[in-house]
């Protein structure tokens, strides 16, 4: 919402908001917060499966 309010200038390299946005976007792609990867890892642990089911992990 903040990026929409500030407009295109919020994506400029000198904008502090751009830095926060980039950090959040990068962090949101980590395996720990990805529901698909977390579900597979949890399911593999429950079923005691050692081999990789999908190339996600």
Would you mind describing this structure in some detail?
The protein is built from three helices and no strands. It is mainly alpha-helical and about 55 residues long. The model has no long low-confidence stretch (mean pLDDT about 80).
Would you kindly provide a brief summary of this structure?
The protein has 57 residues and is mostly helical. The chain has three helices and no strands.
Q: What is the averaged pLDDT score?
A: 81
One letter per element, helices H and strands E, the order comes to: HHH
C-alpha termini separation: 32 Å
Which structural class do you get from the secondary structure elements?
Answer: mainly alpha
User: What composes the largest sheet?
Assistant: none
Runs in which pLDDT lies below 50 for 5 or more consecutive residues are none
Overall strand count: 0
Overall geometric form = rod-shaped
C-alpha Rg, in Å? Answer: 17 Å
* Total of helices: 3
- Kindly state the percentage of residues in helix: 40-55%
Topology, element by element:
Elements: H1 2-6, H2 16-27, H3 35-47
Provide keyphrases for this structure:
57 residues, mainly alpha, 0% strand
